[in-house]
Amino acid sequence: DKGTYPFYMLKEVDEQPVVMRKLVQEYLDDEGIPKIDPKLLAQMKAADRLYIVGAGTSYHAGLIGARLFERLTGISTQVFISSEFAYEQPIMAAKPFFIFLTQSGETADSREVLVNVKKQGWPSLTITNVPKSTLSREASFTLLLHAGPEISVASTKAYTAQVAFQAILAKALGMAMNKENAANFDIKQQLGLVAIGMQAIVDSKDELESIASRYLSQPRNAFYIGRGIDWSVALESALKLKEISYVQAEGFASGELKHGTIALIEDKTPVIGIITQDRTANLTRSNLQEVVSRGASVLTIASKHLSQPDDTIVLPDVDPLLSPLLSVVPAQLLAYYTSLGKGLDVDKPRNLAKSVTVQ
Ligand code: M6R
């Protein structure tokens, strides 16, 4: 039931702070130590490479997860689009471990990979929001996102739950491997800060609605840009915008602009820069300067400690590895209000189904 909300998507965006707290409650003890099945951790620890597999938004969550696993465990981690991996298996590590990210647990492309993985005798974990779903039943291990039902076709709270859960799992695995980085990563405190930060962003809806109507309601094209983890969020942000508002939106690695994409910039093309990482903030800002001088309408989503007076949206500071949990929220709301302003059916965009059960 969507209660007083006009669309499920808005309700689900608003639920994200609660989802963060629920994950803390389900998966962390009072000291903030993850409560994860030791048998699962033992199998993951034995792997020489982690393979994360997903489609759409789940694939985008995997892009963040790979960084979390590499940083906190030191295990090399690769991310694959399920429909690609299914038909072109790369040369494999000696001891792979597979992580399937799927909100619904029913995505046919992801299931195809799991079936092949099982045939080859490799261990797997499904991270899903739907208990008893197909992929949850078929993997060696299953863990639930506890995000509550996600009805809107556009995935929002499942993405942030997938990212936050992977951080918890990466910490658990890193601790099982005696990694100092993992022991020092105060995930409980950080997810608390994330929940507070998300609340501040969802409380600024009026501002996001007016930004959407001013900059995104007219143009046919829009670009999100960023580097590293911000680029991964740019991909997800662009998917949200195209999926529900039908703006041709793309996410680009900002360093790639001058290798081709910048030719697309016209007068008033919206370009939204995501800036949350110390090492790349200035580089992305200079890429934004390059598009400004070609007439683009530039907007910024920047972490507080890197912000400048004319930034459009300023995010509260959290651990930089968890910044996607905040930077994606304004992008979700910009997509929502752009769709709403066009009078579209936000929850049921054309040509799309909530779970894609054909390959
Ligand atoms: O249920 P899944 O996570 O396996 O679904 C994967 C994609 O179909 C899904 O994330 C899709 O991209 C969303 N509609 C995006 O908002």
Major sheet attributes: 5 strands, parallel
Query: Could you state the oligomeric state of the chains shown?
Result: single chain
Helix-strand pattern = HHHEHEHEHEHEHHHHEHEEHEEH
* Strand elements, count: 10
* Shape type: globular
| Helix content range | 40-55%
Low-confidence parts, pLDDT < 50 over ≥5 residues? none
Bound ions, cofactors and other small molecules, one mention each: 5-amino-5-deoxy-1-O-phosphono-D-mannitol
- Average pLDDT, rounded to a whole number, is 97
Strand order of the largest sheet: 2-1-3-4-5
Fraction of residues in β-strands: 15-25%
Total helices: the number is 14
Content-based structural category = alpha/beta
- How far the N terminus sits from the C terminus, by CA atoms, comes to 31 Å
Over all CA atoms, what is the radius of gyration?
A: 20 Å
